[in-house]
Each structure stands twice: as C-alpha cells, then as structure tokens.
C-alpha cells in the first residue's frame, strides 16, 4: 500500500534513498527529501506491507504525465515486484 511521506518518517526515507547507488551520500539524500517537501508537483510515497515500510518512490506529476524520479526498495525485499506495484498504484493517485 502507498502512503504519503510525512516528516515523521524522514529517517526512514533517508535510509531508503541511501540504499540507492546514486543517493549514497547523506547530504544528497537530505537535499532530495527537501525537494519533495518544498515543491508542489513533487511527491514522495512509501510502500508499506504488514505495518513495515519497505520501499519508497518519488514522483513528479505533470498532467497527464507521471515522472518517476526515485525508487528504493529495502534490499531484503528486492526482486519481488514491489517497484512495479508502487508505480501501478502511483498512476492512480
């Protein structure tokens, strides 16, 4: 299930972003999260299963187009189709 990012989960978001090879710098992750917090058409969502946040996607909405900027999955849950599920759900927001 997709849930909207809130500052309460900022550390989890930073951890997931840091797991990406292009976002493996703490300062870069902070800047990325700030972009999602400040820009109206940028949105950050978590993927939650059984009360556990296991993924994150960052999108930009430019009607009618949805642009995926970030996808990060907890390494323990990779190769299970979660990124495809996140994008499918995000298309219907």
What does this protein structure show overall?
The chain is an alpha+beta fold and 93 residues long. It has 3 helices and 4 strands, in the order βααβββα. The protein has a single domain, classed as 3-Layer(aba) Sandwich (Aminopeptidase), CATH 3.40.630. Strands 1-2-3-4 form a 4-stranded antiparallel beta sheet, sandwiched between helices. Helix 1 crosses helix 2.
The number of distinct helices, counting runs of at least 4 residues, comes to 3
Give the tally of structural domains: 1
CATH fold call? Aminopeptidase
The average pLDDT score comes to 91
In percent, how much strand structure appears in the residues?
25-35%
InterPro entries: Acyl_CoA_acyltransferase (IPR016181), GNAT_dom (IPR000182)
Pfam families: Acetyltransf_1
Protein name: N-acetyltransferase domain-containing protein
Domain N-acetyltransferase: 3-93
What's the gist of this structure?
The chain is of the alpha+beta class and about 90 residues long. It has helices at about 10-20, 25-40, 80-90, and strands at about 1-5, 40-50, 50-60, 65-75.
Write the layout of secondary structure elements.
Blueprint: E1 2-4, H1 10-18, H2 26-38, E2 42-49, E3 52-62, E4 65-73, H3 82-90
Helix pairs in contact: 1-2
Organism: Planococcus faecalis
Pfam families: Acetyltransf_1
InterPro entries: Acyl_CoA_acyltransferase, GNAT_dom
